[in-house]
Write a structure and sequence with these properties.
By secondary structure, this protein is α+β, with helices and mostly antiparallel strands. Helix content is 39%, strand content 45%. α2 runs antiparallel to α3.
Length: 155
Amino acid sequence: MKIIVMAVACCLLVTTVVAAQEKPAANATASASDLEAKVRKVWEDFKNKNKESLGAALDDGFRVVEEGTNGFGDKKTDISTVDELELIRYTLNDFTVKPLGPRAVLVTYVAHYESKSGGQATKANSVFGEVWTREGNDWKALYVQETYIQETTAK
Protein backbone atom coordinates (compact mmCIF):
# COMPACT_ATOMS: atom_id res chain seq x y z
CA MET A 1 0.00 0.00 0.00
CA LYS A 2 2.84 2.37 0.84
CA ILE A 3 4.39 1.76 -2.57
CA ILE A 4 1.13 2.69 -4.34
CA VAL A 5 0.78 5.88 -2.30
CA MET A 6 4.43 6.78 -3.01
CA ALA A 7 3.96 6.08 -6.74
CA VAL A 8 0.83 8.26 -6.89
CA ALA A 9 2.60 11.03 -4.96
CA CYS A 10 5.56 10.89 -7.35
CA CYS A 11 3.27 11.04 -10.37
CA LEU A 12 1.48 14.06 -8.95
CA LEU A 13 4.80 15.75 -8.18
CA VAL A 14 6.14 15.14 -11.69
CA THR A 15 2.89 16.39 -13.25
CA THR A 16 2.99 19.53 -11.10
CA VAL A 17 6.65 20.24 -11.98
CA VAL A 18 6.03 19.73 -15.72
CA ALA A 19 2.94 21.96 -15.63
CA ALA A 20 4.85 24.65 -13.71
CA GLN A 21 7.67 24.56 -16.26
CA GLU A 22 5.32 24.76 -19.24
CA LYS A 23 3.24 27.60 -17.85
CA PRO A 24 6.07 30.22 -17.66
CA ALA A 25 7.19 29.25 -21.16
CA ALA A 26 3.71 29.92 -22.52
CA ASN A 27 3.51 33.21 -20.64
CA ALA A 28 7.00 34.24 -21.75
CA THR A 29 6.11 34.29 -25.43
CA ALA A 30 4.10 37.10 -26.88
CA SER A 31 1.70 36.77 -29.76
CA ALA A 32 2.94 37.42 -33.27
CA SER A 33 0.78 40.55 -33.44
CA ASP A 34 2.34 41.90 -30.21
CA LEU A 35 5.85 41.50 -31.60
CA GLU A 36 4.87 42.93 -34.98
CA ALA A 37 3.52 45.96 -33.11
CA LYS A 38 6.86 46.28 -31.26
CA VAL A 39 8.78 46.24 -34.55
CA ARG A 40 6.43 48.78 -36.13
CA LYS A 41 6.84 51.05 -33.10
CA VAL A 42 10.64 50.94 -33.43
CA TRP A 43 10.35 51.99 -37.08
CA GLU A 44 7.94 54.78 -36.18
CA ASP A 45 10.20 55.95 -33.34
CA PHE A 46 13.12 56.04 -35.78
CA LYS A 47 11.10 58.01 -38.33
CA ASN A 48 9.93 60.47 -35.65
CA LYS A 49 13.45 60.71 -34.17
CA ASN A 50 12.20 59.57 -30.77
CA LYS A 51 15.56 58.40 -29.41
CA GLU A 52 14.29 57.80 -25.87
CA SER A 53 11.57 55.40 -26.97
CA LEU A 54 13.88 53.77 -29.51
CA GLY A 55 16.54 53.22 -26.85
CA ALA A 56 13.97 51.72 -24.49
CA ALA A 57 13.14 49.07 -27.11
CA LEU A 58 16.77 47.97 -27.52
CA ASP A 59 18.54 45.58 -25.18
CA ASP A 60 21.72 46.96 -23.59
CA GLY A 61 23.66 44.23 -25.43
CA PHE A 62 21.98 45.14 -28.75
CA ARG A 63 23.92 44.51 -31.97
CA VAL A 64 23.03 45.37 -35.54
CA VAL A 65 24.60 44.59 -38.89
CA GLU A 66 23.42 46.26 -42.04
CA GLU A 67 24.49 45.53 -45.56
CA GLY A 68 27.19 47.89 -46.78
CA THR A 69 28.57 48.61 -43.31
CA ASN A 70 31.94 47.68 -41.86
CA GLY A 71 30.61 45.36 -39.17
CA PHE A 72 28.49 45.37 -36.08
CA GLY A 73 26.92 48.42 -34.52
CA ASP A 74 25.69 48.66 -30.95
CA LYS A 75 22.81 50.37 -29.18
CA LYS A 76 24.58 53.74 -28.99
CA THR A 77 25.52 53.62 -32.69
CA ASP A 78 22.01 52.66 -33.76
CA ILE A 79 20.40 55.46 -31.76
CA SER A 80 22.88 58.03 -33.14
CA THR A 81 21.87 57.03 -36.68
CA VAL A 82 18.56 58.82 -36.02
CA ASP A 83 20.45 62.14 -36.28
CA GLU A 84 22.15 61.20 -39.57
CA LEU A 85 19.34 59.51 -41.47
CA GLU A 86 15.88 60.78 -42.31
CA LEU A 87 13.39 57.97 -42.79
CA ILE A 88 10.93 59.42 -45.30
CA ARG A 89 8.47 56.53 -45.72
CA TYR A 90 8.35 52.80 -45.26
CA THR A 91 6.14 49.74 -45.52
CA LEU A 92 6.62 46.54 -43.55
CA ASN A 93 5.05 43.22 -44.49
CA ASP A 94 5.39 39.42 -44.52
CA PHE A 95 5.97 39.16 -40.77
CA THR A 96 6.81 35.80 -39.23
CA VAL A 97 7.52 35.12 -35.57
CA LYS A 98 9.30 31.92 -34.53
CA PRO A 99 9.91 31.07 -30.88
CA LEU A 100 13.56 30.30 -30.11
CA GLY A 101 12.88 29.35 -26.51
CA PRO A 102 10.76 30.52 -23.60
CA ARG A 103 12.28 34.03 -23.59
CA ALA A 104 13.36 34.64 -27.19
CA VAL A 105 11.82 34.89 -30.66
CA LEU A 106 13.02 35.43 -34.20
CA VAL A 107 11.03 38.03 -36.12
CA THR A 108 11.49 38.26 -39.89
CA TYR A 109 9.84 40.67 -42.30
CA VAL A 110 10.28 42.62 -45.53
CA ALA A 111 10.76 46.39 -45.50
CA HIS A 112 10.53 48.81 -48.41
CA TYR A 113 11.73 52.25 -47.42
CA GLU A 114 12.98 55.60 -48.62
CA SER A 115 15.52 57.58 -46.66
CA LYS A 116 17.80 60.56 -46.97
CA SER A 117 21.31 60.94 -45.58
CA GLY A 118 23.75 63.71 -46.35
CA GLY A 119 21.24 65.17 -48.78
CA GLN A 120 21.17 61.98 -50.84
CA ALA A 121 17.91 60.05 -51.15
CA THR A 122 17.90 56.25 -51.36
CA LYS A 123 15.32 53.51 -51.70
CA ALA A 124 15.79 50.05 -50.24
CA ASN A 125 14.05 46.72 -50.30
CA SER A 126 15.32 44.60 -47.46
CA VAL A 127 14.66 41.49 -45.46
CA PHE A 128 15.11 41.92 -41.73
CA GLY A 129 15.86 39.23 -39.17
CA GLU A 130 15.53 40.30 -35.54
CA VAL A 131 16.01 38.44 -32.28
CA TRP A 132 13.81 39.77 -29.47
CA THR A 133 14.25 38.70 -25.86
CA ARG A 134 11.92 39.00 -22.93
CA GLU A 135 13.09 41.15 -20.02
CA GLY A 136 10.61 41.18 -17.17
CA ASN A 137 7.27 42.07 -18.73
CA ASP A 138 8.71 43.59 -21.89
CA TRP A 139 10.39 42.51 -25.11
CA LYS A 140 13.67 44.09 -26.26
CA ALA A 141 15.47 43.86 -29.58
CA LEU A 142 18.78 42.04 -29.07
CA TYR A 143 19.97 41.60 -32.65
CA VAL A 144 18.99 42.99 -36.06
CA GLN A 145 20.32 42.04 -39.48
CA GLU A 146 19.29 43.72 -42.72
CA THR A 147 19.86 42.12 -46.12
CA TYR A 148 19.03 43.92 -49.34
CA ILE A 149 16.83 42.12 -51.84
CA GLN A 150 16.25 42.83 -55.49
CA GLU A 151 12.82 43.78 -56.67
CA THR A 152 11.18 41.16 -58.77
CA THR A 153 9.44 42.15 -61.95
CA ALA A 154 6.18 40.55 -62.97
CA LYS A 155 6.34 38.38 -66.08
